Amino acid sequence: MSDYLTVQEVIDYIPSSQEDVLYWDEALDAQNTDWIQEDIDCAESDIESYLGKYYQLPATIVDNPISFDMLKCITLDITIFRGYKRTACGMPEEIMFVYAEAIKKLKEFRDEKAYLPDLPSLEDNGVGKVELFSNEPTMQVSSTSLFY
Question: What is the DSSP letter of 129?
Answer without folding.
Answer: T
